Amino acid sequence: MNDTNRKLTLRYCFALAIVGILLGISYSTFLLYFGVTKADGYLINLSGRQRMLSQRIPLFRMLKDRETNPILIKEIQENLDDAIRAIEQAHEVLVRQSLVGAHNELYFSGKNALDRRVREFVLASRSPRDPSSAVLFSAHKINELLLDLDSAVKLFEAVDLAHKASLIRIQTFVLFLSLGALLLIGLFIFRPMTAEIVDKTSMLLDSNAQLIAE
User: Fold this and answer.
1) What does each C-alpha distance from 64 to 10, 33, 42, 69, 142 come to in angstroms?
2) What DSSP designation does 189 have?
């Protein structure tokens, strides 16, 4: 009987260890999901902000060229400088995240690589008297840049969806493993333990009945 109890106890501890490991994996996946979602959301927002700034910079340039009030010109210039710094900083972060896959092709492949075009755009924004600046700030060039920046936003959104889908699949798999472990615990641990309790209870009742009869 003691040997049976020992075996059941070992099984019970082993089952609890498995359930604990599965719960740990599930919790880790849960934390990873939110971490990845937060990081991807940050990149999507940064990419969208870069697109917005690429529209604001030509607007600031146009307002500055039309303005005659020195105070307002200075204010517009400050806003323009802030926008240029912001788009440059955003670009450096996005480029570091775009070293593989479709992002790599969009940012670095061919003469229309987005990395080169954004850097040229930033440089032209800082050098308004440069002859090439007028070409880069033509409506056609600005629209081309906006379309490519739009593509970058969509790519970051697609990566976010892919990450979420993968983590949800992992979480679902862990959930089914946990349910399977609980089923096995019920079949191989609690069922034998219940049977043993029933047997012992039956034996005690029989012994009690014999004592009463005697």
Assistant:
1) 79, 46, 32, 10, 18
2) I
Q: Which two tokens stand for residue 175?
A: 């959930």
84's tokens: 């240029």
In sequence order, the 6+-apart residues with CB closer than 8 A to the CB of 18 are 181
The closest alpha carbon to 91, from 38, 37, 54, 140, belongs to: 54
CA atoms within 13 A on the CB side of 78: 6
Beta carbons of 87 and 54 less than 8 angstroms apart: yes
Q: Is the separation of the CB atoms in 51 and 153 below 8 Å?
A: yes
The pTM (predicted TM-score) of the whole model is 0.70
Please say whether the beta carbons of 110 and 126 come within 8 A: no
Provide the pLDDT for residue 82. 93
In eight-state DSSP terms, residue 74 is H
Instruction: Please write the tens of the pLDDT for every residue from 100-125.
Output: 667 788 888 877 788 888 888 888 88
**Distance, C-alpha 15 to centroid of its chain:** 33
